[in-house]
Write a structure and sequence with these properties.
Strand content: 15-25%
Number of strands: 12
Strand order of the largest sheet: 1-12-7-4-2-3
CATH architecture: 3-Layer(aba) Sandwich
Radius of gyration: 16 Å
Low-confidence stretches: 3-9
Largest sheet: 6 strands, parallel
CATH topology: Rossmann fold
Length: about 180
């Protein structure tokens, strides 16, 4: 899918991209955390995912497989899940957005239907701009791509702000 750009940028620029992403995602009302390793990821997940919550984790990636066993109430159908925990394809620093796809055993709806979405974002998959991300896609891009910036919100009914109508009412992003 998307290439890891961490090898083409120096460490200072990578840290700036991460900081920019975290700041902009936070401005968009997403919860943001940065962890250094798998142990930090597991601690963050334990803090974010309520005990006993029905969790959808597709276990489609190595990272998801490592954390999936942490959820005793793991469900196989995202439609009945309270929380989705998944590795996302990319992050966009400029907007603080995450990029989710429907491919390789993933349903893009899993990032939109449950009330709480916990996105795991490897730091090497953060791009400066959406154009930078699309420039790295190889061959044919996935059929379904969702670019998500913060929790779902709309004001299309009598100009009253409603959160969680067209997607999750809570979004947390963990940068690893």
């Amino acid at each position: 899918m998307a290439e890891d750009v961490s090898t083409s940028e120096d460490a200072v620029n990578r840290e700036e991209l991460i900081a920019c992403f975290l700041e902009n995602a936070g401005k968009a009302a997403a919860g943001v955390r940065s962890v250094a390793d798998s142990a930090g990821l597991l601690r963050a997940l334990a803090e974010l995912v309520p005990t006993g919550a029905a969790v959808y984790c597709p276990a489609a990636s190595q990272l998801e497989q490592e954390v999936a066993t942490s959820f005793p109430q793991r469900v196989i159908d995202y439609a009945v899940a309270e929380v989705t925990v998944e590795e996302v394809l990319a992050g966009i620093a400029e907007t603080g957005s995450i990029v989710c796809v429907g491919s390789e055993g993933r349903a893009v709806q899993a990032s939109l239907l449950p009330a709480h979405h916990v996105a795991i974002l490897p730091a090497g998959k953060i791009f400066a701009t959406l154009d930078d991300f699309f420039a790295t896609l190889v061959a044919i891009p996935p059929a379904n791509i969702a670019v998500i910036t913060g929790p779902s919100r709309t004001a299309d009914i009598e100009l009253t702000l409603a959160i969680g109508v067209h997607g999750p009412e809570r979004l947390d992003v963990i940068v690893l």
